Amino acid sequence: MVGGALNKRLVRRIIGMWGQALAIVAVVFLGAASYITGTSAHQNLLLSRDAYYDEYRFADFFISLERAPNSAAFRLEDITGVREVRGRIVKDALVDLPGIDEPRNVRMVSMPERRRPVLNDVHLAEGRYFDEGVREQAIISAEFAQHNDIAIGDRVQVTIDGRRYSLRVMGYGHSPEYIYLVRSAQDLVPDAERFGILWVPEPFAEMALDMTGAYNDFTGTVDDPAELDAILDRTEQVLDPYGVFSTVKQEDQLSHRFVTDQIEMRDAVFAMIAVLFLAIAASVLMVLLNRMVRQERTEIGLLKAFGYSNMAIGWYYIKFALIVSIAGCLLGMVLGHWLSLIFLDLYVQFYHFPILEVQFYPKVYLTITLLTAVFASAGALSAARQAARTQPAEAMRPEAPRHGHRTFIEGWAFLWTRLGFTSKMIVRNIGRNRFRAAFNVAGVMIAAAILLVGFHQMDSVTYMVDLQFTQIQREDVRVHFITERGRGALYDMARMTGVRRAEPLLQYPFELRNGWRHVDTGIIGVPSDARMTRLLDVNERPVEIRGPGLILAEALADELGVRPGDSLRIKPLMGKITRERDVQVRKVVQQYLGSAAYMEIGALSRFLDEPFAMNVALLEMHPDTSSDLVRYLKDVPIVAAVELSVDAYASLQEVLADAMAIMATTISLFGGIIAFAIIYNTTIISLVERQRELASLRVMGFTKKEIARILYRENVLLSAVGLLLGIPLGRWLCQLIVDTVEMDMLRLPFHLEPESYVKTISLTALFVL
Q1: H or E element: which one contains 712?
Q2: Among candidates 272, 380, 388, 273, which has minimal Cα distance to 325?
């Protein structure tokens, strides 16, 4: 009976404060929805990925080499711990499509002529497998075919090692090896229009590359992944006579790393958002309930006089917090479940998972419910303790007036005397209600910081792409050769129509070793007078490339544990040069995209026993001449691939524009709700606590508009302080993210455009208004 009366009063109280309760519900709602969306989608994405890997037999290791006999696969299977090995032929090639000037780049991967389960198998999205006995046929990656209007049954012209072949398209495929379809670690996002996978019958690959009875790539699985490092050491010993280029574990495989990094990063972001919103909701509840206790002290005294226990009174305020918060949590669960399915569908389409696994995770919903209850109880705890400690006799009397002390500004007579009557009221009210004022400031500060962090993400990615294509890679056309060439090839390129300047690059695979640490990577040979390839230090000043010393990307230097002045032992991973040498690390440079090592091209050539070698030409073109050159290069036998910087740049900008629109909307919504919930609640609390004061002003002749203007100016003043503090807080959070959130393939720079500060200030002011 007693509990029933309190519960009825609680329901009436919540209904009577519906505006403030709704603001808290909105904050918890977004927090719960973010957690359910991120965590459920994360779990289902990993489940779908692993199911895809299992069904299509994603390998545990990948070995690239120059050429090895088929029998090498059996020798690898004899190694203890190796379960299965598959040999294949892998080679990059060009596809010439009708009506398109620029040749498209593809990676040719050999498959068994007859369909059977193999490692890194192909999922046929449409069409059929190869016809036995026919060599000139292919299965093409579905995204590449879609972007280039290639139909099943069409013939595509493929140039492999300078020879052209006509292949009939049998079907569209996907593979667990190429979920994230990029050519190299330097590619930021997939470009399905310009790069695809071409699965061909093994007899055709053998004929096209003159590799009958030989492979240049091995993949395999092991019994115990924990033993993978030791197993790979033994495989390298077996394959050492055949020129091993690289050995890659599944965890380091390019597509797997990109996909896993992005899935894990999104899960962490959603979890941080959820905790932030719940913490803000708890803070709002703390202020609101403490004000309720002060306002209801007489009622609390009466209830205790009628026999209500301290626990019942305290529990009353905790129930208020729990009811409001759990209501927001339940609504957030519904939205979060719906959004998780949408996000999962979008991710599956983006990553091209042919298998979609969806499960309901009770633990996820239980976790967010418990988190909500914990944060809500924490927010209500001080109010409940205060109500429980209130003595009935003391509570029956009105609360003693607060001590009317002088504010800090009142000590500055020259300033205080120049303030008007209403300004003095505002200053005194803020000075005598410091906690409430600080809470208001904190709300605006957090909202502004969130907005600035969101804009930083957009600015940093845009800046990184611009830096890559305007300051580091400044060529118009990049031409890859099939094998290393001499100076004659560079001179030929420089003499071509439309070419202003030609510069060489030499990209060669090496093993870099520092004690027990070792990395297989490429060393890039760059001319000392290069203008189209520039390395930048942390202050974005050009780094001079000279001498035999190495220049390392910061991520690579950290992985090897070296600094300028240290020595590394380097070993070529292809060709006939096998001897190792010690090379000094001359400098460490900042590199946001991928990681590599650099050396002066002449020194690198001599290291390979060549007077001069190059396998990439960078071309600076006269305006409107790139297309004619690309059309010509399609038929040049020594050319393996051609890339136009303007196309890669445009593709990245298109992807970024969509991502930025979504991010801008999301952060504006989050920042707006936080600012609304805090400012609305503190304003209502201020109104309730100052009813007598405001009534006195009405008696003194102030109009409603004049009184409203006083409250409005007070909020604006506090919000201005919060905004001023929110900018440095946001900058600190941006720097914290840059320093702590680093993926293997990508590092975000710290960069904020002036427009981002303007947008942050404008949006925060809008939310306050």
Answers
A1: helix 704-740
A2: 380
The amino acid that residue 102 corresponds to is E
- φ, ψ (nearest 5 deg) of residue 159: -105, 120
Predicted pLDDT of residue 656: 63
- Can you say whether the dihedral through the CA atoms of 389, 391, 396, 401 is positive or negative? negative
With helix as H, strand as E and coil as C, how does 353-367 read? CCCCCCCCCHHHHHH
Give pLDDT tens digits for 141-173.
988 998 888 999 999 988 887 788 999 999 999
pTM of this prediction?
Answer: 0.73
| Residue 1, pLDDT score | 41
518: closest CA among 145, 249, 215? 249
Give the mean pLDDT of 562-577.
80
- Helix or strand (DSSP H, E) at 709: helix 704-740
Query: How far apart (Å, rounded) are the C-alpha atoms in residues 371 and 525?
Result: 54
The 10 Å CB-count burial string (b at 16+, else e) for 75-84 is: ebeebeebeb
Query: What would the DSSP string read from start to end of 558-582?
Result: HHHT--TT-EEEEEESSSS----EE
Identify any residues that bridge with 618 across adjacent strands, giving them in sequence order: 478, 503
Q: What angle do CA 412, 418, 421 make, to 5 degrees?
A: 105
448 — pLDDT class (breaks 50, 70, 90) = confident
User: Which pLDDT score is estimated for 83?
Assistant: 93
| Paired sense of beta strands 477-485 and 639-644, if any | antiparallel
Name the helix (H) or strand (E) containing 666: helix 645-689
Residue 597: which of 654, 525, 646 has the closest Cα?
Answer: 525
How far apart are the C-alpha atoms of 76 and 384, rounded to whole Å? Answer: 69
Query: What's the confidence (pLDDT) of residue 152?
Result: 92
Question: What value does the CA radius of gyration of the chain take, rounded to a whole number of Å?
Answer: 33
